[in-house]
Amino acid sequence: MNQYIYENLVRPYLKNIDKKILQKKDTYLVTYHFPKKKKLNLLHIFLHLGYPCIKRYCACSFYEYDDILHAKYR
């Protein structure tokens, strides 16, 4: 009953930043709670061209956050 009340009566009126992660389906809220982390993850996807990072051969460890940000938005 509490789950039903929360989902249908309380949750529609909350802002995304105020919602809590209670179930696996709510994991998208992580991006609202940590926006810099989301931007950093998107920048790493841009840097690696969508491929997974292999630390042994990858140059991503040489770049700082500001350098990647400058390369993306220049």
Explain what the structure shows:
The protein has 74 residues and is mostly helical. The chain is built from four helices and no strands. Helix 3 crosses helix 4 (65-72). The chain starts with a helix and ends with a helix. The model has no long low-confidence stretch (mean pLDDT 77).
Keywords:
single chain, 74 residues, mainly alpha, 4 helices
What general form does the structure show?
Answer: elongated
Instruction: For the record, give the distance between the C-alpha atoms at the N and C termini, rounded to a whole number.
Output: 52 Å
Structural class determined from secondary elements: mainly alpha
SSE succession: HHHH
Percent of residues in helices comes to: 40-55%
Unreliable stretches covering 5 or more consecutive residues = none
What's the helix count?
A: 4
Instruction: Tell me the major beta sheet.
Output: none
Global Rg? 18 Å
Please give the number of β-strands: 0
Taking all residues together, what is the mean pLDDT? 77
Strand content: under 5%
Set down the secondary structure blueprint.
Elements: H1 2-10, H2 30-33, H3 35-47, H4 65-72
Helix pairs in contact: 3-4
Gist of the model:
This protein is mainly α. It has helices at residues 2-10, 30-33, 35-47, 65-72.
